[in-house]
């Protein structure tokens, strides 16, 4: 400070107390907020006037230190960010998961009875439930690293909470996907994939919650790919059981459907997949854009 640097936090909020960035792991100090402010932004006096917003990201708990955020943007949403971050941090995830399970059980029973009008009604309620939207956003924030074409990641609690509340199916418009090329290690061929933005991925997860109970009822009992709760070992046990049966098959066929996702019939999906048709149409439209761009690039080559 004597050398001409300014503690930005004290410059912006001189009267704030009990604002800490580090807590000892002993005696539950973080929960009781008994800590120290050890982490700072120090800025030269001639530049400090450009700093508009700074706060501690208390909801991020990967360390005994809290990250700190600094921006030159106007602070009109600062208090909102703090409030939303607190709401996200205090989310009762067990309640969210129980709510999702209850809806999925009801959808499963309705599908087993062939009551698809009730299935559609329950699916609409599920995707509109704020608690379940939060689960979808949490899933993407925890398991996604590479952003889409908008280069947006959800890192703060406020960003995640806003995203969850914005997952509206009726107004959903899918964004174009980022084109990603992956080298297949098995055959050394290039695979072209479309990478959605975080928001679209969360919408996929949300509607996957509503669709998966119906798929489990309708799907082939000997289908194992992309099925929740089924593993390669389950497939192995099934094959052994079939081959050891009295009427065991004489042959086993191993094959791969060439470019399945690129060539699958979208009209058939629209007619037969029991989910929100507007959302499905948007998802398929963004996929067609990726495939069209890939075809154009291949023709140019």
Explain what this protein looks like in three dimensions.
- With 301 residues, the chain is mainly alpha-helical.
- 47% of the residues lie in helices and 10% in strands.
- It has eleven helices and eight strands.
- It has helices at 8-12, 78-89, 93-112, 116-128, 130-143, 157-165, 198-218, 232-244, 260-263, 266-272, 277-300, and strands at residues 5-7, 22-23, 35-36, 42-44, 53-56, 68-71, 178-183, 190-195.
- The chain has a two-stranded antiparallel ribbon. It has a two-stranded antiparallel sheet with strand order 2-3. Strands 5-6 form a two-stranded antiparallel ribbon.
- A hairpin with a 6-residue loop joins strand 7 and strand 8 (190-195).
- Helix 2 (78-89) crosses helix 6 (157-165), helix 5 (130-143) crosses helix 6 and helix 5 crosses helix 7 (198-218).
- The longest helix is centred in the C-terminal third of the chain and has 24 residues, at 277-300.
- The protein is elongated and about 85 Å long.
- The termini are far apart.
Q: Strands, helices and their partners?
A:
Elements: E1 5-7, H1 8-12, E2 22-23, E3 35-36, E4 42-44, E5 53-56, E6 68-71, H2 78-89, H3 93-112, H4 116-128, H5 130-143, H6 157-165, E7 178-183, E8 190-195, H7 198-218, H8 232-244, H9 260-263, H10 266-272, H11 277-300
Antiparallel strand pairs: 1-4, 2-3, 5-6, 7-8
């Amino acid at each position: 400070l004597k050398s001409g640097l300014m503690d930005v936090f004290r410059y912006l909020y001189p009267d704030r107390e009990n604002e800490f960035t580090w807590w000892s792991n002993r005696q539950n100090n973080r929960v009781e907020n008994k800590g120290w402010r050890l982490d700072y932004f120090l800025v030269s006096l001639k530049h400090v006037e450009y700093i508009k917003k700074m706060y501690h990201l208390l909801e991020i708990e990967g360390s005994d230190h809290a990250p700190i955020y600094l921006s030159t943007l106007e602070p009109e949403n600062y208090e909102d960010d703090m409030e939303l971050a607190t709401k996200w941090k205090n989310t009762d995830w067990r309640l969210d998961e129980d709510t999702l399970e209850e809806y999925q059980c009801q959808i499963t029973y309705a599908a087993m009875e062939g009551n698809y009008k009730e299935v559609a009604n329950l699916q609409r309620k599920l995707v509109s439930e704020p608690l379940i939207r939060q689960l979808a956003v949490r899933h993407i924030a925890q398991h996604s690293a590479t952003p889409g074409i908008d280069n947006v990641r959800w890192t703060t609690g406020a960003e995640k909470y806003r995203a969850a509340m914005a997952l509206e199916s009726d107004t959903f418009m899918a964004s174009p996907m980022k084109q990603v090329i992956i080298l297949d290690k098995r055959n050394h061929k290039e695979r072209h994939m479309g990478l959605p933005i975080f928001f679209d991925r969360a919408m996929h997860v949300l509607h996957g919650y509503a669709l998966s109970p119906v798929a489990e009822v309708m799907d082939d009992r000997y289908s194992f790919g992309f099925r929740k709760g089924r593993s390669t070992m389950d497939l192995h046990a099934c094959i052994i059981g079939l081959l050891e049966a009295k009427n065991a098959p004489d042959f086993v066929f191993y094959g791969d459907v060439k470019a399945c996702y690129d060539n699958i019939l979208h009209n058939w999906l629209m007619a037969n997949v029991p989910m929100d048709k507007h959302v499905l149409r948007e998802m398929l439209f963004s996929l067609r854009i990726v495939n069209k761009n890939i075809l154009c690039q291949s023709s140019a080559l």
